[in-house]
Amino acid sequence: MAVVFKRYQIEFRLIEQSDIEQLRQWRNRDDIRLMMVDQSEVSQAQQQAWFERLDSHKNRHHFALWFRDQLIGYANVSLDESDSASTGLYIGHEKYRGSMLAICVGVGLSEWCFEQQPITRINAQVVPHNQAALRFNESLGYQVIEQNDSWVFLNKTQQDFEQARERLLPLLSRFS
Question: Where in this chain does the record put each N-acetyltransferase domain (predicted)?
Fold first, then answer.
């Protein structure tokens, strides 16, 4: 249960064997899976193979999200370019879906990226029909840079993020 960092009462932990089945079940739910780049269902064998490869990708960081000693979701950071990262997350725990915790995770993950990684921007991509995710990303400072029938591509600089975080501070202060 190694905590990599903690922000806004969310613990970003290394994923452990005991986490992967719950993460897989959440990830396979239609309301989560159909919003992902890879929308296929993940088998237990595929999930196990993914877990066993986690340490081999040095430019990717995967986190089990914990709140009040409960696994609530998943987040990742990919450093695919020298100056940028891409992130993804989902809150799978039914009690916390649609709550402020997603904002706490998004802000905390962005802070970690800009503080701990040598990047100047963070990228995201969202399916166009996922209006909730688009509003969520825009609240975190993302700007739409391109859109096609399949995807909306967004990015934010540290300055974009800091301006958005300033607007979110009254909400975040409840979790400080």
Answer: 10-159
Q: Could you give phi then psi for residue 144, rounded to 5 degrees?
A: -70, 130
Token pair of 132, please? Answer: 């909730």
Q: Which class is domain 3-175?
A: alpha beta
List per-residue pLDDT tens for the chain, 176 residues long: 688 999 999 999 999 999 999 999 999 998 887 777 778 899 999 999 999 999 888 899 999 999 999 999 999 999 988 899 999 999 999 999 888 999 999 999 999 999 999 999 999 999 898 898 899 999 999 999 999 999 999 999 999 999 999 999 999 999 98
**DSSP-derived secondary structure for 99-136:** STHHHHHHHHHHHHHHHHS--SEEEEEE-TT-HHHHHH
CA-angle at 117, arms to 160 and 175, nearest 5°:
60
Q: How far apart are CA 174 and CA 90, in angstroms?
A: 21
Is pTM, for the whole model, over 0.85? yes
Provide the residue ranges of all domains of the chain, joining segments of one domain with +: 3-175
Question: Are 28 and 39 spatial neighbours (Cβ–Cβ below 8 Å)?
Answer: no
Residue 116 to residue 43: CA distance in whole angstroms: 33
Q: Are 130 and 147 in contact (CB under 8 A)?
A: no
Cβ(84)–Cβ(123) under 8 Å? yes
